[in-house]
Amino acid sequence: MSASSRISFYGGVNEIGGNKILLEDKGTRILLDFGKSFKARSRFYEWNETPRVGNGIGDFLTMGLLPDVSGLYREDLLSLAGRKTKEDRLVEALFLSHAHSDHADYISFLREDIEVYMGETTKRIIESLEFERNATLEFEITGYKQRPSERSSTRIPRKISTFKTGSKNIAIDSIEIEPIHVDHSIPGCYGFIIRTSQNVIVYSGDLRIHGKNPSLTRDFIEKAASAKPDLMLCEGTRIDETSITKERDVFDTCKYFVERSKEHLVYADYSYKDVDRFSTFYNIAKSTGRSLVIHPKVARYLTSLSSAGNPLRLPPLDQNILIYKPRGKSGAYDDRDYPKEDREIYDANKNTICTPDHVKHYPSKVIIALGSNHIDQLVDIVPSEGLYLHSTSEPFNEEGEMSEEKMYNWLERFGLQRIHVHCSGHASGRDLNEIINSVQPKFLVPIHTEHEGLFKLLHGSKVKLPELMKEITL
Ligand SMILES: [Zn+2]
Ligand SMILES: [Zn+2]
Q1: Which ligand number lies closest to the CA of residue 125?
Q2: Residue 146, domain extent
């Protein structure tokens, strides 16, 4: 590889997630992902604690949650931190592989004149999540209001362009990017084939070939191989694992236990953003004579993703689904207790509303799919015993969730027995090796992994180990 293309790593090195990769060719620079590093963050903050807002970007830079690089960040956040604000822009554009926090969330800090490219579905997911949450410093991806907030109430939108399968390649000066769909645990994921003036670089994003849509990743592998890449940036989350649980195994195992739980409560904990898992639980509920109880925000998410011809072929929100209505502030179910968007859902689904009282009286008729975020609903449901289907956890944390210890305490308090079964979003070690051997890059850079050494062992001198804040030139 000529020295004209260079790759630097601001994150995603020797850790799972936090990908922030800078690619430079003939003076043009682009970023691949700009995610939140849960590892760096958890050294100083609990998952539900946040760095101080009043110091803008200052706490994030000082504590190493963001790279201290000039020309990347929003002026309002630099100004609050007492930093120099007039800087030349470092990068032209950013390419986002998918909507997971460890790839997407810290776009929030970037200058609004950096063009952001993402898949159509990813944009829809991010907009849907932004609608549900209050804007925080760490999650204002599609736009933001200047801070301190009294300075302006006008929302500054980011420049976002979308692509989809079949879109034309995107050129940023001498750098051409070809997004290709891959299968992972959230819809709308892409890997990239990147052609610079001298080289071909492949970026895997996060991927697997044991999920429900392996053909997506197979397409990526085939195209990546025929591009004869000089270098492959390859995720290695599960390079050290050989076991493969498929989505079908999640269905079979959970169904088996639900059938044997007979009159008892079944509580399900899975990532609602993973629509494959939603389909699995929809089918478990349907085939065991129960209804799947979902939160109104999940109903909105599914409705948003199934609009425009339901490209992801999601199951319908039909009679097999109930919408959960928790007790509100009044202690009852007063309309005024709920935000407008929830009231709309309740009004539109009058016959399929499910309250904690309903669950209490008919525990054998439902699967409560509220996840660990709403586990406090057990206080109103008061099960005597039951089953907790835990179907999210990886040996790491991609989205931030309750600690296992606290979860176990809740389960013990309410007599719920936990079954863990999960189909990972990441390829196993053997599958990763198959992918790498098929793509046949000249050089291999392991990212998004804590097992770089295993790459080295398996692929020898092909492997170049990335270092934080350092460049790779070949
Ligand atoms: Zn990831
Ligand atoms: Zn991911």
Answers
A1: 2
A2: 5-241+426-472
